[in-house]
Write a structure and sequence with these properties.
With 164 residues, this protein is α+β, with helices and mostly antiparallel strands. It has two domains: 95 residues, TATA-Binding Protein; 40 residues. The chain is 42% helix and 23% strand. Strands 1-6-5-4-3-2 form a six-stranded mixed sheet, with helices on one face. The longest helix is centred in the C-terminal third of the chain and has 32 residues.
């Protein structure tokens, strides 16, 4: 079980680096600050950029999910095949916000629990513990759902025999 919203994995393929970049570019739009999602027609799967043998992308979704993974990839040529090294994590602003939220809730829960032990009442620790649990479950649920979707899409994108 993953305890943190961070993943590394590789996709091995016999596709050329040019073909890998082409398939990725065919499914990629430039990043936009504001995206209107009134229609799915003509929309690509990812937004981001490809620079040399590396890329930084995220999935385009029609709903709000602050925990959407940012996908960093690097294409490595290993002779007869290529290996795409992928790292997925949340956006840095979201990581900082969640560290503050979970850190404060965790520290307050521990302090209230310690204070409750001296007075033989620890029921007050349930509130900050609940805030911690809510934040953690919200973060992991939002991230894991989207990371599994992204993994599946990327795996299909780089399959050898792609039927269009």
């Amino acid at each position: 079980m993953r305890l943190l919203p961070f993943e590394k994995f590789q996709i091995r393929t016999s596709l050329s680096e040019v073909e890998i970049k082409k398939r990725l570019a065919d499914n990629l739009e430039p990043e936009k600050i504001i995206r209107f999602n009134w229609s799915n027609s003509g929309r690509k799967t990812f937004e981001g950029e490809i620079v040399k043998n590396q890329f930084r992308i995220s999935r385009i979704i029609s709903y709000r999910n602050s925990f959407l993974p940012v996908i960093f990839g690097r294409i490595e040529d290993l002779g007869s095949f290529r290996e795409i090294h992928i790292t997925m994590r949340m956006a840095m602003a979201v990581i900082i916000f969640m560290c503050v939220w979970l850190g404060m809730a965790g520290v307050i829960a521990i302090l209230v629990l310690i204070a409750g032990l001296s007075t033989k009442s620890s029921i007050a620790a349930l509130i900050p513990t609940g805030f911690f649990a809510f934040g953690y479950i919200l973060m992991m649920g939002g991230y894991l759902t989207e990371s599994s979707n992204s993994k599946e899409i990327l795996s299909k994108l780089f399959e050898e025999e792609q039927i269009r």
